[in-house]
Amino acid sequence: MITQKMKYALKALLTLADEAEKGHPEPLTIEEIARRSGTPKRFLEHILLEVRNAGVIASIRGRSGGYVLIKKPTEISISELLRTIDGPIAPLPCLSRRAYQRCEDCTDEATCRIRKVFAEVFWSYLLIIESLTLQDMLRSESVAVQVIGA
User: Fold this and answer.
1) Which of 145, 147, 146, 142 is nearest to 17 (CA)?
2) What is the pTM of this model?
3) 143 partner at 20 to 30 Å CA-CA among 14, 105, 124, 149?
4) CATH classification code of 4-69
């Protein structure tokens, strides 16, 4: 399950992407992002700092400052964002690529039946999640509207 923090990050990024699609996008303040995305302002500052440190958005100082996307939605990986906000996405520590740890109670990873089953499920999940970008989420709204309107 993704955390509420991740949901807030996605909502904020979708709001910034919507603004970026305008002819002349303007930086959005935390207050404006919170209002447009329906997320609590008190959580956004920390979340946007993490996303900024990951190189996805930039903050602009000054009177007309705020946040802007610095990557195109097609370049913003959902799996990388998940790892940035929520940490490792593997269901078991012994399956993680970036935070690998041997399970404390495991005597042999090669014959561990729990690892084998979860590895199959996880690799299938990874194929899908690693192919997703913020652009896919932007498109999903228009697809959902088409399906509902049909």
Assistant:
1) 142
2) 0.83
3) 124
4) 1.10.10.10
